[in-house]
Design a protein that fits this description.
Length: about 350
Amino acid sequence: MLRLRLGVDDLARTTFAAPTPYCELAVSAQVLQQPTSQFRRLWRAGPARIPAPARQLLGLVPAYGSVPTFLAPESCTCLDEALDVVQSTPASRIQAELAEIPWSSGPSSWVRALARGSVDALAELGWVMRIYYDHVMAPVWPTVQQVVMAEMRGRAWQLATEGAEATLNTLHPRIRWRDGVLEVGGTTEADIDLAGRGLRLMPSVWTRPAVAMGWKQPTLVYPVRPSSWAQQSPVDALHDRLAAVLGKTRARVLRALVREHTTSQLARELGISPASASTHAAALRGAGLVTTRREGQAVRHALTELGQAVVSANPRNLPRPVSTGTTQDVAAWFPRHGGDEGT
């Protein structure tokens, strides 16, 4: 069990924060292998196909248990930055984290090469993670963002009406607050004094709580409540009202801007040119749905309150991933597992 000791200053500096798709990427690779996870259900509501190369990530991340934390960079604003952080991980850390995984038949030759810090293996890891992001994370991420925002709105209301103690004690059955200590059930034994640093609470698609020990800001990751998932409308590929009004690409731009993006980040995430991303953002800005500001040489876009209301009020259509010619129905290769040992 982890015990987090929070003083008055820590409580005063405790905040909620939304995850990025890059720190959730490895976690999603785990829960995608769990038959009962909400993330897997969401993803399977779309085309539910995945390029064969991306399956290597699921071979690296076990269906249950610990996820290698080097695959989950703390604070990155784009995929390229996240991959650079991952690929810059010291070989000693990669080796130590991979050694903790209980391999059923031993690690593959690629995993052993990763543990040695092989340049070629790390380059392949970046390629694998990029394909996984493009075909698994990117299509569903706008909906995940809506789920997370629903969770954070609910927690903000609970904090205001019931207080911090009730909020902390209802994050997850394995999380309990008592006598100035936040206990997080698990296999790791540690006693951590936050010493005024505060605590970041981060709702996640993961199915069990954990503390991100390697991150600079102490962070407690906890599963999003089923009630927050339930607030999202069922996916219906034939009835995307937003795309019917704005067009598919512009609807995707609007949904992506639930989280602020630069023009180049928006273009990379949606697979369009920077010029096209800029044009769509300008059109949405003209409609009062998007706000744009310049920061140095970058132009940053985000939703206005009206834009947020429009996105929240409309169910989304999961876009079909671009075919690579090597796709396979995920149900054909997912292993069958028993109950989720992490919940």
